[in-house]
Amino acid sequence: MMFFFGLIMFLCLVPTTWIYFFQIYPAKWKEKKLVFGVKNRSEFQEGETAQQVEALVKKHHTQALGIAIVVTILSALFLLLKGVTVQTAIWTIFIMIALVALVVPYYFGNKEMKALKRSLGIKSEAGVTYTDLSNASAVHALRPANVCIPTLLSFGVVIFALLVDFKVIPFGNNWFVGVFMLTGMAAMFFAIAVLVCVLAVILDRVKNEVVSADSAINANYNRAKKKNMADMFVIFLWVNFVFMVLWMVSFYFITEELLVMIALAVYMILLLSAVALFVVREKKIEARYEKEMTMLEDDDDLWIAGMIYCNPNDKRLNVEKRVGVGGTINLAHPMGKLIYVFAALAIVATIVAVVFLGMMESTPLKVYVKDGKVICHQLWDEYVIDVNDIQEFSQGDKLSELHMARIAGVGMPNMLKGKFFVEEESGCSVFLWRANENYIMIRTADRAYYFNSTSEDETLEAARSIESALSSR
Amino acid sequence: MIIRINELSDVPIYMQIRNQIVMGISGGELAAGEQLPTVRALALEMGINTMTVSKAYQLLKTEGYIMTDRKNGARVRMEIQKQASIPEANKTELRRIVSEARISGVPKSEILSLVEEYYGATR
């Protein structure tokens, strides 16, 4: 199971790394619009300067290639890792490190290119912008219907899942019906569809680039680029919808977690294929218009490290990325600052979540009876059941044979904690260490509790204490 | 027609827009009756405040270069009023330019040829 988790991470990271590498480190720099985020000028293409740029590009290209190879090898090795926490922690940290490491040569390349530009006496034209009056907000390639139809169909799947969970639509006597697992998953993929839909609309409305004095060329160039972008998002939305349907249909027959993992891997491959197609077509568009690009808007100094846009005079929040796919945020915009703070918080939260996960996996569950109360304890979670409230008590020794599905809480390979669906009964409180086959079931007036301790002896001891407390009440 | 805006220039942005639209009309890049983008669309494209574009359009309208109405937005006037005279403010500006050129040793012929070039390029 965990192998597939690793495989999904591998399929996310490795193709992204290589797509990113080919996008930001082109070998033939002379044909490109940008060299490490600095506009490629005619001055760079002449004599000694051309040799300097060539050497600079080669150096950073080689460094980045090395990093991409190391990322690929390490990713392959991480497939052999065992343990949820170890895998999650290593992959989370590694993805962050890998993506940052890949842009380090780019950062230095940008710095060196800016220095070279200054040494050539090229005066920066920061603050100068060009706008094509004929194309102002008039070039769009996204047809609303193309994104609305798959998004609405995805919403239809959510409604279907909801009706299944409310048992309005029969879906067999499967254990997952009624626990809102189907609805939850469908809603998650629908949320992705909505996000993609919004992103597609925003990016279709970004400022049109001015590459030529001829408005027709500008219009065609921008339309081609926006069409490519729109197509990618439409593919995303259809893949998302088809995946939702196939996943739901297949879930009717096979309810293995393994299936979910395999399906997610296929889903990632398809999405990344759409990105790869986008990159190839983008390169073709750039090559097609290369000779017609006669205008240069020199805003190099407004791009920190050639990647982060920061222009206090620009009122726009969203601008087209200089490198890579899609748009980016204007850091100087008040909302932009907020988004960057949120992004930083999200990174910190991810690291905290990994630590939290580690603590959950390594801290044993404790079960004991004290002052007439049954107490289940781990970290900050505690269930306290008064012995007088117990209506039914039983012990089991085949935990792995219990059929359980999570409604809310934690479901890790080593332990289950929270509200679960157990043996066709909904809303059970679960506090179980999976490696320990012994467990205790207690029923009170309002719910059933399934719990055990990490230690087998401790569980048996707790069971004896409960029995004796029950007999003496 | 391409508009070049310098955010760091001493000339206000609305005036830069106004000046370049006037040059566009004069040079034939903007034809009589040609539709201009809406205030919102142009502001969005340029990444500036809508009030700035609105101010430029208002000025162009007052000067008789464009006409605006709620239904059709802004258009270049079909018939621009020909006053056949240079306004006083422009005369002063021209005088300043000529004076600066003379002080820096630019020959009269070069100034005249530039005027010839710009005037010729405009129609």
Word description of this protein:
- Chain A has helices spanning 2-24, 47-78, 84-119, 144-165, 181-204, 215-253, 257-289, 334-362, 456-471; strands at 34-35, 38-39, 128-132, 303-304, 308-309, 318-320, 327-329, 366-370, 373-378, 381-386, 392-396, 404-411, 415-422, 425-433, 439-443, 448-451.
- Chain A has a domain at 364-471: PH-domain like.
- Helices cover 54% and strands 16% of the residues of chain A.
- Chain A contains nine helices and 16 strands.
- Chain A is of the alpha+beta class.
- By secondary structure, chain B is mainly alpha-helical.
- Chain B has two domains: 13-76, Arc Repressor Mutant, subunit A (Orthogonal Bundle); 88-121, no CATH class.
- Chain B is built from five helices and three strands; from the N terminus they run βαααββαα.
- Chain B has a two-stranded antiparallel ribbon with strand order 2-3.
- In chain B, α1 packs across α3 (50-62) and α2 (39-46) packs across α3 (50-62).
- The mean pLDDT of chain B is 88.
- The A-B interface holds A 126-138, 205, 207-208, 210, 213, 215, 295, 311, 313-316, 319 and B 1-9, 21, 24, 30, 36-38, 40-49.
- β3 of chain A pairs antiparallel with β1 (2-6) of chain B.
Order of helices and strands of chain A: HEEHHEHHHHEEEEHEEEEEEEEEH
By CATH, the topology of the largest domain in chain B is Arc Repressor Mutant, subunit A
At CATH's second level, what is the architecture of the largest domain in chain B? Orthogonal Bundle
In helices, the fraction of residues of chain B equals 40-55%
Radius of gyration of chain A: 28 Å
* Overall helicity of chain A: 40-55%
Main sheet attributes: strand count, strand direction, barrel closure of chain B: 2 strands, antiparallel
Give the neighbour order of strands across the main sheet of chain A: 11-15-16-14-13-12
Question: How many independent structural domains of chain B?
Answer: 2
